Amino acid sequence: MSGFTFISVLFFLLHFPLSSLSINSEGNALHAFRSRLHDPNNVLQSWDPTLVDSCTWFHVTCDTNNHVTRIDLGNSNLSGTLGPELGQLPHLQYLELYKNNINGEIPEELGNLKSLISMDLYDNKLEGKIPESFGRLKSLKFLRLSNNKLTGSIPRELTLLENLKIFDVSNNDLCGMIPVDGNFDSFPEESFENNKFSGPELKGLVPYDFGC
């Protein structure tokens, strides 16, 4: 590396530390997500990619280090799809996208959100399967996917989520067996109603495959 190149790199790092680069990457992820959405009410008007600090955008909350921790876009009349870029928000704790018209499949990349506490995607038009990658969301306490068009079975990986307190997949097109391992034996019947489940597993016997 030449002396000039070294000085240039050093100058860049001093003026744009790695934390800033990380924060800017979160802004890029949010803007990529915004580009997938149709927003007739202009609730995302403040999501301006020319502003480096996405923490100034409406419906986005950040921590003291300017990392994105919340997205609050429930009941915003949004349509479009979710995308893998949402998985690039490692500090996100709350993903609130309920009561919109979002369709398509739930990206596997949402399983990368290791800090996530609550994911509310209910009352949309989501389809396809519940990602097995959700089994990596060890901090997750609330998972509400009701009133969509989800198909397939409940991934067995979800039974490993020890912090999961609320789980609701009612009013979908899911099938197979309802798990009873982990915290699933504490979820009410209403969490599973209006699907095509064959019934709960028989606890104490060899587990059924959840598939259908």
From TrEMBL:
Domain of life, source organism: Eukaryota
Pfam families reported in the protein's UniProt record: LRR_14, LRRNT_2
UniProt signal peptide: 1-22
Domain Leucine-rich repeat-containing N-terminal plant-type: 24-63
PROSITE patterns linked to this entry: LRR (PS51450)
InterPro entries: Leu-rich_rpt (IPR001611), LRR_dom_sf (IPR032675), LRR_N_plant-typ (IPR013210), LRR_R13L4/SHOC2-like (IPR055414)
Gene3D superfamilies linked to this entry: Ribonuclease Inhibitor
Coiled coil spans: none
Domain annotation Disease resistance R13L4/SHOC-2-like LRR: ranges: 85-171
Keywords for the protein's UniProt record, in alphabetical order: Leucine-rich repeat, Repeat, Signal
Protein's name according to its UniProt entry: Leucine-rich repeat-containing N-terminal plant-type domain-containing protein
